[in-house]
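Table S5 (text form). Sequence records supplied for joint modeling of the two-component complex.
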Amino acid sequence: MKLYLKELKKICFSVVYVIFLALLIFSWSNNFRGVTEEQIELANSNNDTSIFSDSILQKPEEGQDSYGTMPSENEEGIMVGAVDLLLMQYESNSYPTYPFGYYKEVVLSDEDQNRILEILMEITGLDDETLHNLPDNYFPSVNGNIFHPNANVSVGDNGEYILDNDQESDYLFESQVSYEQFKELMEEVDGILGGKSYFELNMLIQYYGNVEMTYEDAVAEYEQNVETDKVSTSFARLFCDYMGLIVGLYPVFIAVVLWLKDRKNKMNEFIYCKKISSFKLVFVRYLAILTAVLLPIILFSFESLIPLMEYSKNTGIVIDNFAFIKYILWWLLPTTMIVSAIGTFFTILSGLPIAIIIQIIWWFIDRRNVLVGENSLSTLIIRHNTLGNSSAISNNLETIWLNRGLLFGLAIILIILSSIIYSMKRKGKLNIEYKFTKLWYILKEKYLLIFKK
Amino acid sequence: MEIVIDKLTKKYGKKTVLDNVSLNITKGMYGLLGKNGAGKTTLMRILATLLEKDAGKITVCDISIEKTKEIRNIIGYLPQEFSFYPNQTVYDALDYLGILSGISTKERKVKIKKILEQVNLTKERNTTFKHLSGGMKRRLGIAQALLNDPKVLIVDEPTVGLDPEERIRFHNLLTELANSRIVLLSTHIVSDIETTCNNLAILHEGKVLFDGNAKKLKEKATNKVFIIEVEREKINKIKEKYKVINMIQENNKIKCRIVSLTPPKEKHTVVTPTIEDGYMYILESEKK
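The corresponding structure-token record, covering 741 residues in total, follows.
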């Protein structure tokens, strides 16, 4: 216990941890802080005309103008939205894409632009000239996230968009291809754009597949939120979505610095010849890293949990007081474990910070995942960037459990291997560090030379 | 209380660093003398369980060197190059390493207090490592090696970089510690051994050239150490011809202390050898 506290203190007073904490606070503050209170406030007000005013805590009442929307593979909506957007992007030859989760504008060659035009003509059945002179009512005035000039939208006191009820709902667009053919064409468009464009099916569903919920749908969703998710689970998922982005990368820096500190400060030989077992030292340090990473996250969760507990007290709606801790342990712990284990293993093995490069690559690859519902066995960070829509999780539950279990198991294996390697190094049985250092300097010099050129 | 080294061999790739080394080290201060690269540090690191031997047998207080955990429990090691976490205080550094040595909290408190008094660092207990002087850092190094009250204390080149006063203080400390344990001291500075060690070995290119006490080493050079007086301009010729240990300038002449296997042809005086003369004689004989 004493060693654990010493290691924890060592981590918490390091520069790298202070930077980690600053990033964590920045991310939490920018993305999640205040969301819960805002949702409670919205639920307590009755402003149901604002486009972005839906509160998952608001109980639907029969006869409301709108019950919000829900994602669905609404073929008509997806096709009209996709063509509208594609035409806009084609006309400006500016296609936003999000490789690795970051914005990238794609500008196409004449040849590719011609192919996009052919696709547009094939779907609409219109020629080039007609496509450039479409009547105002060819697309819906409000088409997903596209507002045409004829849309009746005003801006509210708080800067929110308010949708007038008398929207023009008729439009002329009529697809000349089947939905299956349309999907193939969109796949081709996404391919031309290099992937991760708005024309991926997941993105199209997210932006244009939403359908108006019926009263029954709204009640079902509300009951799902209140009864199954016990309200707090929805917030816990969104909270863990944001925190996951941080714990999916930064703990590797903490682990690398912690282990390199011994070498940098020439403490290795003092430690090596002490009685402590290698497994105990590696495991205690690992535990200290996990604590240092997850402790502030647990503390931040109270910013959401406390208002929810108060809400529960005022409304009588039962919430799950342990939702945050459950999701932190289920979603964030395995991610933190694997990232810290990679940092520990590769630093002990090589005596170099190569784990940082490995982790950055995995993190970037993983960031290609969409914001909600795309999880596989190799997923590093579980994304669920929305309140509600818990079906995206429940439909994928088995994969998520397998993925989390896999990361947990891999992390434990890496820590056991780290202990074995550390033990061998202590006895002078393994001197692989020398080879890694040599390789590192060769590569460094080579790339520095290229950089200088 | 004894270290028995029998036909120890260690190779780095094709290079033999320790070649059939056999030594018997008993309680008290034992010096390991040799030039840089003689194999002293390799031998010490093997004894400190930080390096594996290739051949031979070693027992430390009747425990085989292969039993690393048991060996680590009875040895204290001060490497040649070391440091601590710069922002850790003297007390915290010892407390941390005490935990790694498996010493209980209660025991640590008592031991650290006692050791700090022993190495004269009580006043500096709350000073951070980066603010200690070179001598204090070395004493802290010894302090950490004493945490587990070791039967064997291994110190590698401990006086490098210390001023003369700190050096004497350090020697006194080691002598005091050698009353109740084996202290194995490696150095390339002969005077470090002269004043402190009962027994010593000379290592040269991985081989033991001498193993015995200081008196025996001096005796080896009896009638082999001479003083010759030469003119200044002839000094280079003398240097080429003999192993010159030191030179003293007197008026226009220089008095050279030399080691020679045969008496020099020049006019000379035979002198009583010191331990340094013995060491130089052994190295010179090896060359021939």
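Note: Chain B has two domains: 2-213, 223-271.
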